[in-house]
Design brief:
alpha/beta, Peroxisomal Thiolase, Chain A, domain 1, 2 domains, single chain, 15 strands
Length: 425
């Protein structure tokens, strides 16, 4: 056991920072999930001739940024800076004395730059499209590495940074990139997760609307309905979930609190269609993550599903989960999007983080708005409308899938209290 604790290939989460449409800390967020509190609201966006629904965050943008810095930067950067600072603060790291050249930043995102380009085009349209009024800040605002780069500027990090473009699998991809870089000894501390500013671009709403995939309900809280036969599409959301991630021996040596251990992960591609998912490839991704973790399907206690409340997406993931897990009744399958909408690049990170406290309270939060389960999404393990008490929660598996057929899976293990586990017995 002692030798195992000194294994530098064991990777753990030691700090959490987040903003979600229904909470700005892990405690607030978890409470909202257990109480069935939605964060979906009516929202108005440019050029869309009717109100839409969105998951909107309400955090203090100026807690860690000056107004001048915020004006120069982006909403995605602001989300990232807030969550990264919250994670660092939560981690207990002696930040002033950390070697910043050994810190890496790895943030997943679905898309970046659309918001800024739309804003600039709208602005020059007021001046007969005179490009002289185009902002000189446009280029640094729209480069793909912007969100992670803004974090390095704010926290004075001189190590590597990447914004990982992985569609809606990006939150998981940020965690995976961090784990790999830590194992390669490229960094000693990783700040990683996923972020989204998606609601601030009208184009995402217009595109989903043109697909017939934009959700609406007279009661916004009931709009996002994964697995439900009466679902009618996606609720777009913004948000961020960022963690400090370290090698286990380093975390133990400094007496860190540990939220969980990343024991398995996988990514693969459908190679089939721009938007339509493939159950077989998703099942292969889940199985690969299990194999890398050395786990059997029956050892997983909670599956955090990706289901977006789109017909094909829900059906294919249900097929994939049945392929891997069968109908074992002790498994709990839940869905966080039903509360906050689809936070795109932040989705996987927020969905995983919302489930982590289950290691302690042994409760699988519900999938709300599941009034009549689609028979084509036959999963008897789905936690519908009310949280479920669990006998044990040792392993949580998090699914995140995205356009162009990108699939990602991360598995987290509970860490015992004797070595610093926050949620240990």
């Amino acid at each position: 056991m002692q030798d195992s604790l000194q294994d530098p290939n064991r990777i753990v989460i030691t700090g959490v920072g987040l903003t979600a449409p229904n909470g700005n800390s892990l405690d607030e967020y978890r409470t909202a999930l257990l109480q069935g509190k939605s964060g979906v609201q009516v929202f108005e966006t440019r050029y869309i001739k009717h109100p839409v629904l969105a998951g909107i965050c309400d955090f203090d943008e100026f807690l860690y940024q000056k107004r001048k810095e915020r004006r120069r930067g982006t909403r995605a950067g602001s989300v990232s800076i807030y969550c990264a600072n919250e994670a660092v603060k939560d981690s207990g790291l002696d930040w002033a004395n950390i070697n910043k050249s050994r810190v890496g930043v790895y943030l997943g995102t679905t898309e970046h730059g659309n918001v800024e380009t739309e804003n600039e085009i709208f602005e020059i349209a007021q001046f007969d499209y005179d490009t002289k009024v185009w902002s000189h800040h446009h280029n640094p605002r729209t480069v793909a590495n912007n969100p992670a780069g803004e974090v390095t500027l704010n926290l004075k990090i001189t190590g590597p940074h990447l914004t990982v473009g992985a569609a809606c699998a990006a939150g998981n991809a940020g965690f995976i990139q961090a784990a790999q870089m830590l194992k390669l000894r490229e960094v000693d501390i990783a700040i990683a997760g996923g972020i989204s500013e998606s609601i601030h671009t009208f184009g995402i709403f217009a595109s989903f609307a043109s697909q017939g995939a934009l959700a609406w309900h007279d009661d916004p809280a009931k709009a996002c309905r994964p697995f439900d036969v009466n679902r009618n599409g996606i609720v777009v959301a913004e948000g961020g979930g960022i963690c400090t991630i370290e090698r286990l021996p380093d975390a133990i040596a400094r007496g860190a609190k540990i939220y969980g251990e990343i024991v398995g992960y996988a990514m693969n591609s459908d190679a089939s269609d721009f938007v339509l998912p493939v159950a077989a490839r998703q099942a292969e991704c889940v199985q690969l993550a299990l194999d890398r973790a050395g786990l059997k399907p029956e050892e997983i206690d909670i599956v955090s599903s990706h289901a977006t409340a789109t017909e094909q997406g829900d059906i294919e993931e249900s097929r994939a989960l049945r392929t891997v897990f069968g109908d074992r009744p002790s498994l709990a399958v839940n869905n966080t999007k039903s509360f906050i909408g689809h936070a795109m690049g932040a989705a996987g990170a927020l969905e995983l983080l919302g489930n982590l406290p289950a290691f302690q309270d042994r409760i699988a939060h519900a999938t709300i708005n599941l009034d009549e389960q689609d028979p084509r999404c036959e999963l008897r393990q789905v936690v519908a409308n009310r949280p479920r008490d669990m006998e044990k929660v040792e392993y949580i598996l998090n699914n995140s899938f995205g356009m162009l057929g990108i699939n990602s899976v991360v598995i987290i293990k509970r860490v015992p209290a004797e070595i610093g586990g926050v949620f240990g017995d």
